[in-house]
């Protein structure tokens, strides 16, 4: 009952936030753009359109995802959401008015919305944690391989989980069931499938929050379609190769986004190239051989962010935290992802896509595949500028986790998902943690 009451209070709080944002727009439109107001039905359509754009964009940027992301990310999500929705509405009203409106009014509307969103987000965040106290949690593991890493990740969520028990699957049945009884949330890591099944059943029967760290096979099963053989259900694994029409549409979308990106950032790219050249008198563009769909090799272009002698020893080496090979200009470019802009020309040429697994260097890919043979599955689709691993992971995310994220993208691919990822990439640019280097001076990402 308490959980249902808490959910209702949270829903009402989020609804008030949503209504407040829309109300500020309505009042602002009346004050600054009185000429664009219409009779009841016309205004109703305009307001409904604004509500729809706010809702859809907030879903893409997880603006209502209180408790699952930190408060700073929530505020950033709403800032981007309001920019997108207000820009869209500005263009709509300008078209209806048959002339570009004064942008100052929308700037004031945006500022007022942000001023209200920040304290309201803080209040809703507090309500969430008051209604959802820290859960007593347990970890049941099979192999110890990544136990410490996942324990650290779970324990970092100290506002949500308190790990009281870490138990091996080899413990007695009574010990395992007693551990589950004492916990509210149970995490399973590399537990044998047969044992995991009956432990799942026990958790389900006793209403425990159950989490499983995914394996490659579990990702494939999760995206499988259910079919029936007579009265027996079976899972049909998807074919990651989209139909010809979808491929053509994706290619057309790549060309459109690449051309728009080049036009919008052309002057910026020119300025960056001049700045790099003036800094050390060496070429601004760095070329690398990378692997794409079907294991084909291509030349990738990016702005050089390191010293010219960064890899004179011939060893392929990822950037580390505080890497002294990175130039001052390079450090800024990496944080803002400006160094990746020349890859828009790779997309235009067809060697890359806007969305897809990031292309690896052949020598690094070979090292990964020796440890993770399924790493080669990433080459089932064309390499991309952004994707699941870039939006939901970091530069220093381990190769295995990046592989899982890339496989999830391949298995759940859709044009709408691509558009969503492109929009979410904008938010990632403002999150510095997404570009953190690896720890130490490893030649690849095998540092974990």
What does this structure look like?
The chain has 448 residues and is an alpha/beta fold. The protein folds into 3 domains: 130 residues, no CATH class; 79 residues, AF0625-like (Rossmann fold, 3-Layer(aba) Sandwich), CATH 3.40.50.10700; 192 residues, no CATH class. The chain has 15 helices and 10 strands. The strands form 4 sheets. It has a 4-stranded parallel sheet, sandwiched between helices. Strand 9, helix 12 and strand 10 form a beta-alpha-beta unit. Helix 1 packs antiparallel against helix 4.
Largest sheet, in brief, is: 4 strands, parallel
Pattern of helices and strands: HHHHEHEHEHEHEEHEEHHEHEHHH
Which regions have little confidence, pLDDT < 50, spanning 5+ residues?
437-443
Instruction: Please tally the helical runs, counting DSSP H or I stretches of 4 or more residues.
Output: 15
Distance between the ends: 43 Å
Percent helix, as a range, is 40-55%
Oligomer: single chain
Strand order of the largest sheet: 2-1-3-4
Number of domains: 3
Rg of Cα set: 25 Å
Shape: globular
Classify the secondary structure makeup into a structural class: alpha/beta
Summarize model confidence as the mean pLDDT. Answer: 85
The proportion of strand residues reads 5-15%
Find the count of extended strands (DSSP E, 2+ residues).
Answer: 10
């Amino acid at each position: 009952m308490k959980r249902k009451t808490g959910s209702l209070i949270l829903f009402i709080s989020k609804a008030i936030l949503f209504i407040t944002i829309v109300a500020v727009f309505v009042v602002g439109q009346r004050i600054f753009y009185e000429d664009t107001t219409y009779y009841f039905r016309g205004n109703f359509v305009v307001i409904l359109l604004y509500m729809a754009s706010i809702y859809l964009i907030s879903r893409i940027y997880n603006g209502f995802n209180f408790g699952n992301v930190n408060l700073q990310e929530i505020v950033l999500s709403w800032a981007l959401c309001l920019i997108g929705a207000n820009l869209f509405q500005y263009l709509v009203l300008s078209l209806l008015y048959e002339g570009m409106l004064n942008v100052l009014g929308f700037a004031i509307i945006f500022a007022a919305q942000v001023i209200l969103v920040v304290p309201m987000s803080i209040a809703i965040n507090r309500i969430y944690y008051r209604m959802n106290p820290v859960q007593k949690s347990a970890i049941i593991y099979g192999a110890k391989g990544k136990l410490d890493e996942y324990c650290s990740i779970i324990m970092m969520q100290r506002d949500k989980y308190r790990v009281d028990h870490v138990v091996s699957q080899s413990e007695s049945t009574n010990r395992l069931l007693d551990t589950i009884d004492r916990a509210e949330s149970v995490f399973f890591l590399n537990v044998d499938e047969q044992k995991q099944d009956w432990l799942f059943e026990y958790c389900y029967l006793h209403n425990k929050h159950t989490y499983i760290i995914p394996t490659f096979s579990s990702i494939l099963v999760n995206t499988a379609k259910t079919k029936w053989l007579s009265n027996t259900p079976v899972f049909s694994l998807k074919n990651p190769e989209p139909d010809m029409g979808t491929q053509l549409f994706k290619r057309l979308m790549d060309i459109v986004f690449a051309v728009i990106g080049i036009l919008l950032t052309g002057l910026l790219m020119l300025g960056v190239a001049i700045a790099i050249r003036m800094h050390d008198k060496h070429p601004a563009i760095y070329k690398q051989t990378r692997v794409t769909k079907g294991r084909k090799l291509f030349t990738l272009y990016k702005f050089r962010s390191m010293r010219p002698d960064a890899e004179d020893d011939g060893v392929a080496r990822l950037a580390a935290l505080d890497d002294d090979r990175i130039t001052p200009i390079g450090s800024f470019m990496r944080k803002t992802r400006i160094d990746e802009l020349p890859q828009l020309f790779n997309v235009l040429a067809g060697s890359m896509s806007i969305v897809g697994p990031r292309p690896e260097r052949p020598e690094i890919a070979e090292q990964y595949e020796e440890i993770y043979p399924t790493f080669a599955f990433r080459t089932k689709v064309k390499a991309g500028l952004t994707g699941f691993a870039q939006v939901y992971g970091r530069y220093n995310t381990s190769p295995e986790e990046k592989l899982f994220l890339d496989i999830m993208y391949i298995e759940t691919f859709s044009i709408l998902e691509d558009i969503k990822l492109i929009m979410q990439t904008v938010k990632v640019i403002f999150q510095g943690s997404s570009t953190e280097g690896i720890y130490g001076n490893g030649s690849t990402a095998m540092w974990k």
